[in-house]
């Protein structure tokens, strides 16, 4: 079967699993395109993107245009047979997408047309979806709107967090892209138009969305919390300080406790919500280190209902 020269375009950790699968395949990754490196932390240290680090490890050329709409001639110069994209982070011009013989394929972490956008993994849990997956699609100059050729489903377990679901999707995404390229090379690829009537969106998590909405039911609160674990981590307020929630369990107990209050029962920590409660397993009070629920209870007994 024909071996293709591929330019890969992607930036975050999730994209690394796709890139690694391409590196391990019979195909040749001739260049990696990622977003520019960013300054992080208080010291503003420049941090290389995950895909750039992986590319350097494998002696693959890296290109980091600031504005790809204005600066893509260097990518075209590689004359790739195929472009593969995954969470690149900028809208890619059609002149670039359409240049290769086999066009461009994108790996998106949802079952399109559901959850177009930059946070499909987080939002699939926050929205209470029972399943999600990976779609391999043609890239077009509209966010995640291209025809798809391959989809792989994953069940969202009631205990899944964004982190655990991310791990599942990385595995099937890496498998799916190789399968899709094989179909493309063999001339067996069939593309299906997305049903615009069923489109939904999963825009990037905003700062406002990190605050847990306690006006919703306990199941919605549970989904909201676990959909933000391990990043960016949701929070509630505890005595006027942010309390980040790093670990949570769904509970079926019901208690007549004011909504939004923390309480202790059988040495466990619970948050009262509409229609029920959720159990908090690992938390972090503003200005403090992350700790277990029992450590938090011991340090705040007099301020939690039932804590004494």
Automatic annotation (TrEMBL):
Domain of life according to the entry: Bacteria
Binding site residues for (6S)-5,6,7,8-tetrahydrofolate: 110-113
Any matching Pfam family: Formyl_trans_N
Record key words, sorted: Protein biosynthesis, Transferase
SUPFAM superfamilies in the cross-refs: FMT C-terminal domain-like, Formyltransferase
Ranges for domain Formyl transferase C-terminal: 204-300
Swiss-Prot/TrEMBL catalytic activity: L-methionyl-tRNA(fMet) + (6R)-10-formyltetrahydrofolate = N-formyl-L-methionyl-tRNA(fMet) + (6S)-5,6,7,8-tetrahydrofolate + H(+)
Assigned EC number: 2.1.2.9
Residues of the Formyl transferase N-terminal domain: 5-181
InterPro entries from the UniProt entry: Fmt (IPR005794), Formyl_trans_C (IPR005793), Formyl_transf_N (IPR002376), Formyl_transf_N_sf (IPR036477), Formyl_transferase-like_C_sf (IPR011034), Met-tRNA-FMT_C (IPR044135), Met-tRNA-FMT_N (IPR041711)
Gene Ontology MF terms: methionyl-tRNA formyltransferase activity
Stated role: Attaches a formyl group to the free amino group of methionyl-tRNA(fMet). The formyl group appears to play a dual role in the initiator identity of N-formylmethionyl-tRNA by promoting its recognition by IF2 and preventing the misappropriation of this tRNA by the elongation apparatus.
Family according to the record: Belongs to the Fmt family.
Official protein name in the record: Methionyl-tRNA formyltransferase
Gene source species: Breznakia pachnodae
Organism placement in taxonomy: Bacteria, Bacillati, Bacillota, Erysipelotrichia, Erysipelotrichales
């Amino acid at each position: 079967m024909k071996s293709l020269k591929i330019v890969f375009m992607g930036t975050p950790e999730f994209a690394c699993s796709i890139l690694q699968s391409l590196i391990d395949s019979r195909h040749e990754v001739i260049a990696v395109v990622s977003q520019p490196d960013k300054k992080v932390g208080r010291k503003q240290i420049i941090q290389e993107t995950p895909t750039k680090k992986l590319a350097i490890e494998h002696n693959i050329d890296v290109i980091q245009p600031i504005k790809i709409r204005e600066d893509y001639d260097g990518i075209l110069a590689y004359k790739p047979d195929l472009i593969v994209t995954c969470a690149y982070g900028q809208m890619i011009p059609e002149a670039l997408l359409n240049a290769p013989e086999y066009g461009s394929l994108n790996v998106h972490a949802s079952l399109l047309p559901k959850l177009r956008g930059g946070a499909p993994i987080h939002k699939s849990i926050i929205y209470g979806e029972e399943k999600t997956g990976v779609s391999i699609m043609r890239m077009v100059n509209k966010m995640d709107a291209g025809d798809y050729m391959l989809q792989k489903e994953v069940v969202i377990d009631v205990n899944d967090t964004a982190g655990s679901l991310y791990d599942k999707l990385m595995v099937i995404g890496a498998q799916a892209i190789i399968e899709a390229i094989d179909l493309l090379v063999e001339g067996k690829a069939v593309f299906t138009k997305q049903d615009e009537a069923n489109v939904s969106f999963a825009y990037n998590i905003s700062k406002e969305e990190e605050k847990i909405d306690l006006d919703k039911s306990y199941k919605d609160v549970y989904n909201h919390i676990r959909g933000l674990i391990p990043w960016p981590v949701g929070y509630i307020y505890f005595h006027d300080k942010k309390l980040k929630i790093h670990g949570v369990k769904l509970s079926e107990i019901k208690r007549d406790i004011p909504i939004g209050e923390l309480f202790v029962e059988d040495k466990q920590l619970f948050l009262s919500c509409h229609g029920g409660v959720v159990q908090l397993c690992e938390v972090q009070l503003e200005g403090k280190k992350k700790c277990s629920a029992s450590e938090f209870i011991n340090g705040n007994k007099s301020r939690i209902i039932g804590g004494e």
